[in-house]
């Protein structure tokens, strides 16, 4: 099951303060997640050795 990686609250607050001063329209949700490092951490799977 993937784990959700959330940015620290202080980074979100700083981002929101910067965005409040920016006159441009807000970026897409994907861009916001990328800027804040918010995403999914997929479990790493190890492959079993192959039998030849």
Oligomer: single chain
| Number of beta-strand segments | 2
Strand content: 5-15%
Listing every helix as H and every strand as E from the N terminus to the C terminus, the arrangement reads EHHE
Please tell me the overall pLDDT: 80
Which structural class matches the secondary elements? Answer: alpha+beta
Distance between the termini: 31 Å
Low-confidence stretches: none
Number of helices: 2
Proportion of residues in helical segments: 40-55%
> What would you call the shape?
elongated
**Rg calc:** 18 Å
Strand order of the largest sheet: 1-2
Let me know the largest β-sheet.
2 strands, antiparallel
Quick summary:
This protein is of the alpha+beta class and 52 residues long.
Task: Please describe the topology of this protein.
Elements: E1 3-5, H1 9-21, H2 29-36, E2 39-41
Antiparallel strand pairs: 1-2
Structure, described:
The structure is a single chain. By secondary structure, the chain is an alpha+beta fold. Helix content is 40%, strand content 12%. The protein is built from 2 helices and 2 strands, in the order E-H-H-E. It has helices at 9-21, 29-36, and strands spanning 3-5, 39-41. A two-stranded antiparallel sheet has the order 1-2. The longest helix has 13 residues, at 9-21. The two termini are 31 Å apart. The model has no long low-confidence stretch (mean pLDDT 80).
Q: What tags apply to this protein structure?
A:
52 residues, 12% strand, elongated, 2 helices, two-stranded antiparallel sheet, alpha+beta
């Amino acid at each position: 099951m993937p784990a959700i990686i959330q940015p620290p609250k202080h980074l979100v607050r700083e981002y929101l303060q910067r965005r409040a001063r920016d006159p441009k329209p807000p970026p897409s949700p994907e861009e916001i997640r990328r800027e804040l490092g918010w995403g999914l951490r997929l479990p790493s799977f190890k492959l079993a050795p192959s039998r030849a």
